[in-house]
Write a structure and sequence with these properties.
Number of domains: 1
Order of helices and strands: EEEHEEEEEEEE
Number of strands: 11
CATH architecture: Beta Complex
Helix content: under 10%
CATH topology: Metal Binding Protein, Guanine Nucleotide Exchange Factor, Chain A
Number of helices: 1
Strand content: 35-45%
Shape: globular
Radius of gyration: 16 Å
Largest sheet: 5 strands, mixed
Strand order of the largest sheet: 9-10-4-3-11
CATH class: Mainly Beta
Structural class: mainly beta
């Protein structure tokens, strides 16, 4: 029986000082609308990939990463303080790798599985498919 090769992903922060690789596949991809994830991203939802088997390796800038854990919760966020980019982090005592989809430099290899915590979504997150689309800044 042939086993498909593991996928390799690369990612980085906005300024490029932090770079990483993920060896392995993502098992889940969720768009989370909870208030905490909205605060983390400043947007309608967070887009996070999850894996219990993939391995994270820092190529540069690991010492520049900060992790904030919300007291009294399991909610945490890793980021580069200087440019503000959200970055991958290990959670649940290292058992779960959480990768911010926007920090990847290429395709995810997986589409979102679900929107989660939709009961918490913001009021302006309805019917966004009807909002005009522009390929760049509006003219």
């Amino acid at each position: 029986m042939n086993t498909p090769p593991e996928r390799s992903h690369t990612g980085s922060c906005l300024c490029g000082a932090v770079r990483y690789t993920v060896e392995g596949d993502f098992q889940s991809f969720f768009l989370c609308h909870c208030a905490r994830c909205r605060k983390d991203t400043g947007s309608a939802h967070a887009a996070n990939l999850f894996s219990t088997t993939a391995r994270l390796a820092w190529l540069s800038g690991e010492d520049r990463i900060r992790t904030f854990r919300l007291p009294g919760s399991r909610h945490q966020r890793s980021f580069r303080a200087e440019c503000g980019s959200a970055l991958p982090g290990l959670q649940m005592d290292g058992a779960l790798l959480v990768v911010t989809a926007g920090s990847l430099d290429g395709p995810t290899g997986i589409r979102p599985n679900a929107h989660i915590f939709v009961a918490s979504r913001t009021d302006w997150d309805d019917h966004l498919e009807t909002v005009p689309r522009c390929d760049g800044l509006p003219g």
